[in-house]
Amino acid sequence: xxxxxxxxxxxxxxxxxxxxxxxxxxxxxxxxxxxxxxxxxxxxxxxxxxxxxxxxxxxxxxxxxxxxxxxxxxxxxxxxxxxxxxxxxxxxxxxxxxxxxxxxxxxxxxxxxxxxxxxxxxxxxxxxxxxxxxxxxxxxxxxxxxxxxxxxxxxxxxxxxxxxxxxxxxxxxxxxxxxxxxxxxxxxxxxxxxxxxxxxxxxxxxxxxxxxxxxxxxxxxxxxxxxxxxxxxxxxxxxxxxxxxxxxxxxxxxxxxxxxxxxxxxxxxxxxxxxxxxxxxxxxxxxxxxxxxxxxxxxxxxxxxxxxxxxxxxxxxxxxxxxxxxxxxxxxxxxxxxxxxxxxxxxxxxxxxxxxxxxxxxxxxxxxxxxxxxxxxxxxxxxxxxxxxxxxxxxxxxxxxxxxxxxxxxxxx
Length: 413
Prior knowledge:
Largest sheet: 7 strands, mixed
Number of domains: 2
Mean pLDDT: 92
Strand content: 5-15%
CATH superfamily of the largest domain: Type I PLP-dependent aspartate aminotransferase-like (Major domain)
Oligomer: single chain
Distance between the termini: 26 Å
Structural class: alpha/beta
Low-confidence stretches: none
Shape: globular
CATH class of the largest domain: Alpha Beta
Order of helices and strands: HHHEHEHEHEHEEEEEHHHHHHHEEHHEH
């Protein structure tokens, strides 16, 4: 994924933009090299799809769990089963949700993010929750929105809800797993998520009265093939090597930064033909991918414990600093995917430039609001978030010492 923020920054940076000494990869897979091999063996000697479905049924307390090629495909498939024509999306979220709504041929209405927050809450959805619309609340970066209030609003207003818990696998709100509140919930197994199995998603059916299960099992939007993800497995092995600290600092990041010096290609306008050739829509969730998720679930408690520890370090180091955080008072620390911050006294481009000089590469994402550029002024909070948020890494192989060092250096910036 191209990062536009760094394209702007690197126009003013000459020579090698980032020394090696403090490089931390924004994301490393929870999937190890050994997992790739043992999961393949498991997929040929057992029934991992059935086993994973049963585990998810226990975790969610829901009987109907379906798998999809990806989270974006899951949303498109769900939307295609409903006759409603209008979908309400947060203006600040992943662009593939917008893509999914377009592929399902729905009209899109946007709501702003909450002031001083990143999620769209029930307050923002209230204006556009009109009868017959579909609401897609999101738990962005694993931060829970007030999903109970949004779902209650939807019931009162005769709306349907797809709960986008793509970034919040395993996270709980008041003891209940995210993804189990809306009429339908979706969780993701894509590479940037907590349990990455290349791509893939699970659909959690929470209200069987509003969805045709059989139709959802056989969506007609694209032709789906069941194929062993050989190329993706090889890429995952390469990704593990490329994000190991020495290689990442000396080879991977310098290469990435050179690509960021070049402007990104313009967004493709006609996305419907593309969906029919896009593996995120056409490649079914394979038993090998299910076996990979099962391997990671075996140590999921340990992963969550490390994430909770890292979040606590960020909280304690940043609490008396001028940096802005977006975490609500009560939340599942172990359920965060990234730790978002913002520098309120400086432009993000200045911070990114200073960080590079100090040997820090900082992750950014969702750098533009989803509405058309001409409409951005209608969504000031989403626009502010897109232009200011920086994401701190959270993954089990990040040491507590490096997390503490990263946070301290950010405070000094």
